[in-house]
Amino acid sequence: MYNKGPIKIGVLFSETGVTSMIGRSQFQGTLLAVEEINEGGGIDGRELVPIVYDAQSSPVLYASLAEQLIIQDKVNVIFGCYMSSSRKAVLPIVEKWDKLLFYPTLYEGFEFSSNIIYTGAAPNQNSVQLAEFMTSNFGASVYLIGSDYIYPYESNRIMSDLVLQRSNSQRIGEQYVPLNACQKDFTPIMKDIRNKSPDFIFSTVVGDSTANLYRAYAESGFNSKTMPIASLTTSESEISQMGVEIAIGHITAATYFQSINSLINKKFINSLYKKYNKECIPNLYVEAAYFQMHMYANAYRQAGSDEIGKLLPSLLGSEFIAPQGRVRIDPTNHHTSHYPRIGIANSKGQFTIVREANRPVQPDPYLVTHSLGDWAAVLSTVEL
């Protein structure tokens, strides 16, 4: 089938450990795109061959495996990382060897590396929209809960700044839990929330602890209609883990939801189900991992190489029609344009989209501007 030698790429996600649920979904999105590319004849007649390692949710292992991919496996490009701590661990490795990392995860912003392509959302593509929606519909007193690592601290700082711009605003609590937090770890936090009565809770809890947070909330008898949990990281996968009844009414801002009603998204979901027999739950992490691989392949075809100096001129400024809409890699900051959306968890284990951008929001990782991107109400009333 192939008339030339293979092209090796590094694939570095966590298939085990506390963030394995999302890591596996990113891995699945990556492999689906690789399969589609190879079924279409590969890249200029060359098969795309992923060299896969499990980083086990460990930043230290991410760093050592990234170097192994570069030195021993001779790859020029790595696709991987979920938590910001893992990206921070890999960043000096790809910069040292002048290789390229594609990073398919929303993150806290305030970073640029010429050796990273950021295909997840920056804060101006999710935090800004979520703060506007929550303060407009529920009020401007917020209680922040996060996992104990860099992304939650920085994301909570950004959310605090955005909320405190509103009148009658207040940050009335901020708590952090271990990455492996169990349900009882949230019990004293729930008691504090009951005493302080915020308008909403902002969660930057990730991994398996996410389900435990929402279960603790439900056990405390709180009502999502009056004091919901708002998040950037709670996706359809976390809903499947915690249970639909526990998730109903809680709110997520994301650039992709499974419930997007478009032909390309339906095709994407059908392809995922066909390959994984519904063992892969479509979410924002799967989608970014999927479209970034296609953007890499398209750029390689133009450049004839994935050496960073040759690939970047074809990659930067390139566009792709992704399941969320047409995305573009900004040539000035290496981040990606996105379509922000607000979704409310419903009884189907998905999100009812109630707000969305009518045009792509350009990435601004340093939050110089706060555009809502022709923000539009999709639904005025929501049946959960």
What does this structure look like?
The chain is an alpha/beta fold. The chain folds into two domains: 183 residues, Response regulator (Rossmann fold), CATH 3.40.50; 173 residues, Response regulator (Rossmann fold), CATH 3.40.50. It is built from twelve helices and 15 strands. It has an eight-stranded mixed β-sheet, with helices on both faces. Strand 1, helix 1 and strand 2 form a beta-alpha-beta unit. The longest helix has 20 residues. It is globular.
Give keywords.
single chain, 384 residues, alpha/beta, Rossmann fold, 2 domains, eight-stranded mixed sheet, 12 helices, 15 strands, globular, disordered C terminus
How is the topology of this model organized?
Blueprint: E1 7-13, H1 20-39, E2 48-54, H2 59-71, E3 77-80, H3 84-97, E4 100-103, E5 116-118, H4 127-137, E6 141-147, H5 150-163, E7 170-177, H6 187-196, E8 200-204, H7 209-219, E9 229-231, H8 236-242, H9 244-247, E10 251-254, H10 263-276, H11 284-303, H12 308-315, E11 319-322, E12 325-328, E13 341-345, E14 351-357, E15 375-377
Parallel strand pairs: 1-2, 1-3, 3-4, 4-5, 6-7, 6-8, 8-9, 9-10
Antiparallel strand pairs: 10-13, 11-12, 13-14, 14-15
Helix pairs in contact: 1-11, 2-3, 4-5, 7-8, 11-12
